[in-house]
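A common beginner's mistake is to predict each chain separately and then try to dock the pieces by hand. The better habit, illustrated here, is to supply every component at once so that their relative placement is modeled jointly.
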Amino acid sequence: MTFDLVVIGAGPGGFDAAVDAAGLGLSVALVEKDFLGGTCLNRGCIPTKLWLGATSAIEELHNQARMKVASGEVTVNFAGLQNRVQKHLAGTRKAMGLQLKKLGVELVEGMGRLSGDHRVTVAAADGERTLDYKKLVVATGSRPIFFPGLEPDGECVLDSDMFLSMEAMPESLIVVGAGFIGLEMAQVAHRFGCRITVVDAMDRVAPLEDPEVSATLASVFKRWKWDIRLEERVAGVLTRNGKAELTFQSGDKLIADKALVAVGRGPVTMDIGLRKAGVELLFNQIQVDDYLMAAPDIYAIGDANGHIQLAHAASHQARYVALHAAGKVEGPYVCPPVPSVLYGAPEVMRVGMMENEAFLADYDSTEVSTAQLAANPMAQAHAATQGFVKVVWSGGKVVGVTAVGHDVSRLVTPAAMIVHQGWTADAIHSIIFPHPSLDEALLTALTAERKKVQ
Amino acid sequence: MTFDLVVIGAGPGGFDAAVDAAGLGLSVALVEKDFLGGTCLNRGCIPTKLWLGATSAIEELHNQARMKVASGEVTVNFAGLQNRVQKHLAGTRKAMGLQLKKLGVELVEGMGRLSGDHRVTVAAADGERTLDYKKLVVATGSRPIFFPGLEPDGECVLDSDMFLSMEAMPESLIVVGAGFIGLEMAQVAHRFGCRITVVDAMDRVAPLEDPEVSATLASVFKRWKWDIRLEERVAGVLTRNGKAELTFQSGDKLIADKALVAVGRGPVTMDIGLRKAGVELLFNQIQVDDYLMAAPDIYAIGDANGHIQLAHAASHQARYVALHAAGKVEGPYVCPPVPSVLYGAPEVMRVGMMENEAFLADYDSTEVSTAQLAANPMAQAHAATQGFVKVVWSGGKVVGVTAVGHDVSRLVTPAAMIVHQGWTADAIHSIIFPHPSLDEALLTALTAERKKVQ
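With all components supplied together, the output reads:
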């Protein structure tokens, strides 16, 4: 038979594309070489959130203890936690498998590659299988990338996959790369009592964020006694005498039990016959048009097309390609504002344009308005008052929101709606924010005095 | 001088009315007999949130311990907590006072009453003072009410004000009234190890909520070994031999260290000259027209008008009357959907119409769609998976949302926007929900199969 749709990769993008397409009545095969759920479920967002959730009492206790309100000790059993993570992942994969079965999606396990006109060949454990398709979705995701000298060895130098598979937390950790992945993992290690050193070549932590957000994060981390080394170039990192040894280009060295290298992720697009099928690649990213198409009848979504490395962006693209493949939409893909969140304590949220982006787009009308979390009763209740919410305005409309601090992830969905809808000052009071709530910090920022960005 | 606006009561409604009016350029006097911030700040929402925040590590630890992931003990020092609460309240009141001063609002401390044509007399510690006004805002708030036999004695039978002022947590507590106030306070007591009995004449806890929400709450409370006595009529409760003794109409008795009576709150509208000024009262509630006016040049907002006993509803009304008094709006008051939240763990949120209300309004087109929290990775991460999100549809539009479970308060602001905007199925994918997040449970509920309400 010829499938209406074949999907390569069962991460958030590919899985959702298969499910959505099957829900629309298409015959679908989903090819996966590893586990259902991809990086996000098995080696990324979900295990990290389980780690953060399991250790959140440590952070809450710590904050209340600083206020002389609480005392005691919370111990997280790392082996027990890892066991729970594995059980959760297995349970989620099983539920995903059942969902595919119920929808009639054929799951084909093995490495898929484009092998001819409208054809994919899957190298499975029990031999090769050929799948003919009318349309194809490439959702092959991404993997950690490394600069020369920073390659993980699996012993003391780890990538994020290896870090999540550890059997015990180290007592000291060097994190190379101060982006979201490194910072979330470092936070968890910190809660286990691990001494943290963060190294980045940029001049600030979380370099994709608003500079004031980065400064607040750095201030919190320094209070936690993290050693933060910025604008430092690393020559290499390797295992020596059972320790991770990092050498800067200056010749200085750092030694710790483990090093986590989290300098970025790159698309998985090699050796699957993409170029031969007419797909264009640029720095391994699949080039797509306004319809998320990489070649006739071939879509590419998620991390593989390199637009935005976030699961929910992939899922949103997935829904579009399913509808497009089924002939239910004809226009180009429209991407709403994509929210981004760093979890932990503090959290960071961002959606839409940041101050500098808005200023570059229209330097004449860019303004910002800000609210400090110290004035918020929920931040006070959790004794975690460092942080702020910042609203970016352009032409009198909200074009972006960012925040750092206790529980600010809860602002991201309303903020995404506000940015998408381009609220003006008049729209703010069209809804009622609950009191007391962290959400009110967003209201306070929306109604605060605006300052022109210079 | 004659003030443009005199406000009686400095709770969330009155304070915001004064601040908003001053911001619009009006000359304003604010009359308060007690503390700035009213019940919400001093004896209600804020102290309870500080209690819940301070004890949240206990709940987080408990959940992870059930999963064999964490162990240990967290002790909250109640005296230290009460000290912190008082410091926080004093600091907030001070900041509010400074805000009034900065805006030129005259704070007049004492009991205010309407004493003649466009005149308020304030009985202050140092004698009487007369304030002439062009417009008046009555924002006198509410106080706990009691049925005969349930009056607090301040010894072992307490109202919520007295409960919040305790110097130590009791070892056992009877809560009379299973509404939000009683349940939040009972949760805190539970975290301190207190044995809880909840008594209500209704057939379910949280009787204003969706019945399935009530059932989930009851199920959680029973797992906590709470003794829940529903459809039980109380004859009386009193202090005997240093204990609280509750007698049912059946003659059965309950004994505990303390009893908290939280059966409701009623407006504070007596003995301040309202009727004489032409204001109509019904069950002590000030009757207002579509402009929130109770008589010519007299507005009434917040708990005093009995519409909605929630601080944020009062604040929203406050803004309207300030604008109306300043001549900046002319049309009637429009009340957006008012979110309501029960904090703690589990939390409850509600906004818009519930299933039964929507069915009564249009029995032909009411549908519900639901998502269980068990499938949500953030609920899983916090090992708190009991609960659900329910969306109520009418005529193909979202008219209400409710939820119960871990951290569901974070859904209430986006839900308030969705209900206000009357989203149809097509609107859902106009925004992107972050992954992973508790917010996705709302997305799942919005896209779940809808069932007709019968």
